[in-house]
Amino acid sequence: MSRRAAAELLCGVNLRALLDSVDAFLFDCDGVIWKGDKLIDGVPQTLDLLRSKGKKLVFVTNNSTKSRTQYAHKFTSLGLSVTQDEIFSSSFAAAMYLKVNHFPPQNKVYVIGGEGILEELQLAGFTALGGPEDAEKRVHLKSNYFFKHDKNVGAVVVGLDPHINYYKLQYGTLCIRENPGCLFIATNRDSVGHMTDLQEWPGAGCMVGAICGSTGREPIVVGKPSTFMMDFLLQKFDINTSRMCMVGDRLDTDILFGQNAGCKTLLVLSGVTTQSTLDDSSNSTQPDYYTSKVSDILTLLGE
Amino acid sequence: MSRRAAAELLCGVNLRALLDSVDAFLFDCDGVIWKGDKLIDGVPQTLDLLRSKGKKLVFVTNNSTKSRTQYAHKFTSLGLSVTQDEIFSSSFAAAMYLKVNHFPPQNKVYVIGGEGILEELQLAGFTALGGPEDAEKRVHLKSNYFFKHDKNVGAVVVGLDPHINYYKLQYGTLCIRENPGCLFIATNRDSVGHMTDLQEWPGAGCMVGAICGSTGREPIVVGKPSTFMMDFLLQKFDINTSRMCMVGDRLDTDILFGQNAGCKTLLVLSGVTTQSTLDDSSNSTQPDYYTSKVSDILTLLGE
Question: Taken in order B152, B157, B162, B167, is the CA torsion positive or negative?
Fold first, then answer.
């Protein structure tokens, strides 16, 4: 693959051209809109401005700890008016993956991850086990102890799980190893995430890596950079991907996702990626544009 | 690499030839000597027979939950007389790796794994943190919460940890990501282990996979199939590896370890490997010999 041209720093001129050439902005959330539970400065005004210019806004997040309903509440609580229909989370994507692949509704789904995954699975009509209710479960490593698992589990969905434990790891790996045809679905493989505003924490890639390391299986990834979610976006909004701009803080998920789908891409340095990572010779992912944070859009337009 | 000839089923004839051609037997433990806390039938008599024929016995285990002293106690409690000097565990190997690589004693080691690793590290003169004392620690994922880690940690050692939690994962990955030059050492990468006699459980490969998935780093592996431990065996016992036979239940660790070191190899089917796995066309690791369990040696010799 030929190397893309180096990213252009966003400025008044290329920003105006970008605004003219796209009809929708796809935003990642963690590190772009907020960090943990703190809104990033200037976000509400920037979103208002883009809406006032007639742009569609869509929020595409790999964070699977919440459902779309829960995300809508988070947006509201931070003073942003965003509806559930504008949100595409990897928890929703996991449920939709099973739906479009005709997962038999009599089969069950074991979840390593948060409430959001269970909620989306249940909304889609599936029976989900595990998740938060297994957070405090313990195993008994003694002679004659037999760990039972449900033979009707036909898929294990793995996302970020701050309550990861050996019980869940044994449950998930037993299903994958012993239930014939059991699917292994990863909401995403982000290495780290801003679970709090002050620092990074292990992301879903950590839990997914644990399952890979014990089963020798590779997952089906439904979140970014997989373009699975894009199919839903395209069905919903009648906009060509070349007239969309993906805005994110990660090269290996957001920017790659945008590029895989044929969107324009804007990297913001308010999350996990630093200028030196972007510039490093080992980095082969170059967005079209980069800037320090989304509210630079306001400043550069002089609004 | 050319494919080895298919393994020969052990019989009276090739067993006698094997006994004539080797001076030492290296045994894996889990799935060979015991399963969980249950001794496999006929093991004591078989070891006695081999000792009576003048063979050196060495026990090489990837299981890092115990130190060598703790292993010696386990052997004794099961009625086997094995001394600490005959045991080489991956917990010991981790400590020796740091020792031979001149790890500065003023630096600390963070442990994801069992008491055995901490004990071996301390015996070797190192300061170890983590392990069992972090089993019940929890994180607080709220705004302004800052997770502190020791900047003097210069190595993270990861082994099988049934008390794995998000606290340990954050601690270990922060050290690897943020402490300059911090080593990432895996006791081993076994996908599963017989934590109980009735079934398999996630092995160290699970915890190691979690750290890889969050740091993007690959570990230094000190247990089987790495030949790091063999260097110590060779220093200790003045026996050429061609006159050693590695006996184990795993193709990807035990048999590969034996072959990497130039030993003869005997696979036993009393642990994780089944006859169909051995015979499967996707399996490229063929031991010299295979048999159902170590006590077949007794039967085949008519003793």
Answer: positive
